[in-house]
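Handout, section B. The chain below has 510 residues.
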Amino acid sequence: MVSPAPLAADRRSADWRDVPGHTDPLTSRLSSTIGGPVGRHALIGRNRFFTPMRAILLLAVLFLILGWFTKAGCIQQAPVGVNGALGLDWSGNRQYVAMCYSDTVPLYGAERLDEGAFPYKKSWEEPRPDGSVQQRYMEYPVLSGLYQYGSMLVAKAWHSSTWLPGGLQVAIYFNVVAFGLAVAWLATVWASALLAGRRVWDAALIAGSPLVVVHAFTNFDPLATVFAAGGLLAWARKRPVLAGVLLGLGGAVKLYPLMLLGPLLVLCLRAGRIRVWAQTAMAAIAAWLVVNLPIALLFPRGWAEFFRLNSERGADPDSIYNVISSFTGWAGFDGPLAPGESPNVLNAVSLLAFVAVCVGIGYVALTAPQRPRVAQLCFLLVAGFLLTNKVWSPQYSLWLVPLAVLALPHRRILLAWMTIDAFVWVPRMMYYLGVGNKGLPEQWFTGTVVIRDLAVLVLCALVLRQIYRPSEDLVRFGFIDDPVGGVLDQAEDAPPRWLPGWLRPRVGVR
């Protein structure tokens, strides 16, 4: 991100690079607090130390620090154990009142990590509401589980040391996990800034997103975003095998990075670059298998726990299906279920709804007058998955942040959506607190979920508008086509002969 010399000054000037102080009214007004926007004749990118990339990463560090403080209330200790032994102070429902809840803390005991157990090998029994017993294993995909295991080993080694600062083992574990997640998010910001091309300052929206403050340390999702962003960066640099490896590893953390192969498929089909996509897809499958096969062969029941649990769980509180039930009293597609019974109809409906989203996105990608950008289709796919899926855990919104910024770099619109999405955490915690504990009724929470979903739908509509009106796309500028495109960048349409006419671009070859 540093200009090496006066060479190419015409492309590094304020006329070529996007300067938010000139192009964005909000940024221009905010810049008045530090002296106003950069001058019209300034040469951008000449400072060798305080570059845009370093400024953005510094902003990301500041917001990650804020994110750690929002969770710090849940690792406070107090004499709550036997004979005044120190333990986590969650008295008075602190995790909800202070809104500091993080899955990391309770999972340390719930997943038997405090016992030093290896994930997927260790099993335990949990009682069901009907009195029966369910055998349980680690519920996360392989790389997520191994990350928890590695963090536990570090935490136990730290706790046993006599020369390091002491504390509760679970608190040390949380901080070890948080440090790794912070590094992963910084790498996500770095990769996204490179993907932004001339609009490098758009990555500041990722670094300073309100969702980072709320959810950077809620779960392990920054591990998935870094593989997704890294995979797209490798694709943009025309390294399809490396892109596939990173997306495959991301699929071993959370499944969504593997979904990004879908937009690449239809775009490569349109451009006649299907062999390049095949390299990426084969590398992704190979990387996923290398990580998963050893665990699946050694501990098949533990490995399958993630899939079993997701097939048996009902509609998540944040899902559209639960929102409808909340306001109408609807019992759901499957009605009351027995413990351990899968909501088969709900599973089928959510799957078919997502398939319909994929078909619609594929139609847009193949028939739009100008080939859509990779980031645009990736955002539409992931947003469609979250909107139609039966599970939308609050931290999943982090998946959308880099993709939304790369797809639709309108700062005020994105900040409005991120703020709404982050605010959903407040009524969610108050709903979990319970009305009897001066919490909020369910409808206050599900009402904000409706607003969040509408905001995401608006973003999708704006992305579709820019696909069909590429002249309004802020990313495409002069000779710039698609910074994330890789082999698709500047590529002409060359669909295969067998593709029917109604699936071909509506306008002739560019």
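Note. The two ends are 31 Å apart (CA to CA). Compare this with the example in section A.
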